[in-house]
Structures are given as structure tokens and as C-alpha cells.
């Protein structure tokens, strides 16, 4: 198995061993689809555009993204503890404390990218300016997040040796590899996600329900797949530094470099 197939294998193992945790993003996605359908979102492309800022859709979209962050905690722990389903959902106080800044970071960008245009619109800022800012920030954020894969992975297992800044420093030499792995692994699934969304437009209720049901399962699989990519990046980055992903590896140990496991 190579680096490009391992994330898929890990995602499947998590799905099979932890079905309830795996289902959380799917349930959130189904709930969002139900609200979208009620708002007429899937009638046409024009209707999709008109309903994109529907309040119920936005609220459930936020909950879905939070479910993805939770999967980051669950799946990382599952693999780090040798595919242990009990470890995946265990509420480890140290790991939670280290992982909370990761969630805070992600939530900040969720608000900026998804809520920023709405807030800016309420302030009567020019729509073209808003779209330009989002068009710049979104790819920039996605590209920058490659540097944080090791931080996100190690904190989820209670390893405080690699903080925000140290993760960036350690990843520099592996950035292009990390970017390539992410694109090759995630892009096909992401494209399929959008293909299913457009395939559901203007269909009968039964066909729309079937397509959106398949899409919800795809989103549920995409959640651990994204985490598995981060996990693979962390393995490479730490391996090149002579280290490894170690549950509670930071307990009583010096940090890897000048920064501890937080946003400092």
C-alpha cells in the first residue's frame, strides 16, 4: 500500500469499526439536505443560488462542519491507538485541551468564509469586493492548512510536542508532497460531491432523495478521508524529524522546538 491509497484504507477501517461516529457527519448532511429541499434549493441552478443563504441551511451547514472537526479527533485517535474504537471516542482531558485550539482555528475560518459575505452584505459593503476577498482567502486558507496537519494530528492524541508554529516549520520540506497527496486523494471525492449535488437538480422527489442520500454517505466517508490525509502528512513530517505520532507523547517531554502544543 502506498501513500495515496493508505488514506482510503484508513477511512474505510474507521467507518467499519466506528459506525456511529462515522454516521455523525452523514446525519448532519441529511438534515441539511432536508432543509435545502424544503427551501426549493434543488429545483434549479437559479433556485440553488437564491436559497444559498437560507438560515436553516446555514445553521445546519455549520453543524455539519463541526461534525467534520469532531471526526478529526475521533479518527486520529482510532488510528494512533492501533485501530481501537474505544480510544476513538474516549474523552481524554489532555487531548481535548490540546485539540480545542485546533477547533477554534477551524471555527474562525468557518465564520470568515461562510458568514463573512453575509455580515459584509449587512454592512452594505460592495458585493464584488466581498466575492474578491472570499476568492482570495479560500484557496489561501486551504493551501496554508497543509502546514498545520501535524499540529492537528498530534494534539488529537494528547501529544503536545508540536505546536502551531513548529508544525509550519517542520512541514516546509514536505509541503509539495503534502499538497500533491491532498489533491490526488481528496479532489476526486470532492468533484463527485459536487457532481451529485448538480445531478439532483430538477429531478423527481424519489430520484433527488436517492442522489442526496448517496451524497450524504459520500460526505461521511470524506470526513475520515480528509483526516487520514492529515495523518499521512504528519507521519511523513514527523518521520523526517526522527519522530512519530505518539499518544500522550508530550506528557513530561520537551516540545519539539521552541513552541508547545498551542497557538502561541
UniProtKB/TrEMBL annotation:
Native organism:
Sphingomonas arantia
Signal sequence extent: 1-28
Q: Where are the transmembrane segments?
A: 58-75, 96-123, 129-151, 175-196, 216-234
Name the chain's protein: Glycerophosphoryl diester phosphodiesterase membrane domain-containing protein
Q: Which UniProt keywords apply?
A: Membrane, Signal, Transmembrane, Transmembrane helix
Amino acid at each position: 500500500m502506498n501513500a495515496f491509497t493508505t488514506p482510503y484504507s484508513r477511512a474505510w477501517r474507521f467507518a467499519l469499526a466506528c459506525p456511529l461516529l462515522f454516521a455523525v457527519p452523514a446525519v448532519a448532511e441529511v438534515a441539511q439536505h432536508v432543509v435545502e429541499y424544503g427551501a426549493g434549493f434543488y429545483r434549479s441552478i437559479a433556485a440553488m443560488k437564491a436559497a444559498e443563504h437560507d438560515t436553516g441551511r446555514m445553521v445546519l451547514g455549520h453543524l455539519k462542519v463541526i461534525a467534520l472537526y469532531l471526526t478529526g479527533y475521533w479518527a486520529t485517535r482510532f488510528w494512533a491507538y492501533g485501530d481501537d474504537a474505544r480510544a476513538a471516542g474516549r474523552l481524554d482531558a489532555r487531548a481535548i485541551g490540546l485539540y480545542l485550539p485546533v477547533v477554534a482555528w477551524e471555527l474562525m475560518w468557518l465564520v470568515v468564509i461562510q458568514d463573512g459575505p453575509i455580515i459584509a452584505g449587512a454592512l452594505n459593503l460592495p458585493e464584488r469586493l466581498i466575492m474578491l476577498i472570499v476568492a482570495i482567502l479560500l484557496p489561501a486558507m486551504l493551501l496554508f492548512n497543509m502546514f498545520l496537519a501535524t499540529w492537528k494530528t498530534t494534539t488529537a492524541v494528547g501529544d503536545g510536542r508540536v505546536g502551531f508554529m513548529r508544525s509550519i516549520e517542520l512541514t516546509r520540506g514536505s509541503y509539495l508532497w503534502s499538497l500533491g497527496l491532498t489533491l490526488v486523494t481528496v479532489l476526486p471525492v470532492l468533484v463527485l460531491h459536487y457532481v451529485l449535488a448538480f445531478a439532483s437538480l430538477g429531478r423527481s422527489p424519489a430520484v433527488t432523495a436517492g442522489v442526496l442520500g448517496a451524497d450524504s454517505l459520500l460526505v461521511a466517508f470524506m470526513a475520515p478521508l480528509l483526516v487520514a490525509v492529515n495523518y499521512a502528512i504528519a507521519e511523513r513530517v514527523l518521520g523526517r524529524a526522527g519522530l512519530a505520532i505518539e499518544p500522550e507523547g508530550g506528557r513530561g517531554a520537551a516540545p519539539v522546538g521552541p513552541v508547545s502544543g498551542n497557538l502561541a
